[in-house]
Amino acid sequence: MSFEIVTLPCLADNYAFLLHENDTGTTALFDAPEEAPILRALAERGWSLDQVFLTHHHYDHVDGLAGILAEHSAEVIGNAQDADRLPPLHRKVTEGDMVPIGSGAARVMDVSGHTFGHLAFHVEAANAVFTADSLMALGCGRLFEGPADQMWASLQKLMALPPETLVCSGHEYTLANGRFAMTIEPGNPDLVARIDSVKAARAKGEPTVPSTLGQELATNPFLRGHVEEVQKSVGMTGQDAGAVFAKVRQAKDNF
Ligand code: ZN
Ligand code: FE
Question: Could you give the residue numbers annotated as active site?
């Protein structure tokens, strides 16, 4: 059982992902920002699409769907609780549901905060979690619809996954996220090293996504509210990690 993940740049700075299993010939798409690059990637590989997983209702994650479905008859999967804001769903899911993908499965995780009903999909067999605008490379999504404690609960679910898990997030924001991270934890050598490699990748036009959960745990300021330097940077020494997260999120909004 081996899965291949293809990272597809879409629109200005979005990512969609194809997850393909050779043995079963199964192909799943995670988010549909834009039809052309996704259809091209499928055609180049001779893959036909079986499933589309939608993380949340924002246009930059769903607007390519109609054009894709015009060429591929795929099952569309999204949050039952947010179905009225999503494109028509063939399978409505909620937290904890298991959706078969080839010989594996995607476990549905409710990671609300950026939007109400934002989902992540953990595919253990592929060692990957598709997080879109919840946990991002060196960042996390803006809190458009949920309070900080809801996003913190969501991030904690993701933080509990195995550290080698690939975090397939929805945007190429890593360089800008890194500039903010350096104002919060400049004394973190792992962060400094990561930003160097992010700069090098971007200079070559390469994506910095996916990252690994282990990298995020070591360098992402939104996951590091328990660290003294992070607490100190936002004036919250000794406070609990969730409260520090809320303050770091606020600082990023004003950055
Ligand atoms: Zn979004
Ligand atoms: Fe987005």
Answer: 56, 58, 60-61, 114, 133, 171
Map out the domains of the chain as residue ranges.
Answer: 3-253
| 76 in Cβ contact with 69 (< 8 Å) | yes
CATH topology of domain 3-253: Metallo-beta-lactamase; Chain A (3.60.15)
pLDDT for 9-56, tens place per residue? 999 999 999 999 999 999 999 999 999 999 999 999 999 999 999 999
pLDDT, one tens digit per residue, over 196-252 is 999 999 999 999 999 999 999 999 999 999 999 999 999 999 999 999 999 999 999
Residue 135 CA to ligand 1 center (angstroms) comes to: 11
Give the CA distances from residue 119 to residues 57, 76, 136, 154, in Å, rounded to whole numbers and listed in that order.
10, 14, 13, 10
* 3-state SS class at 151: helix
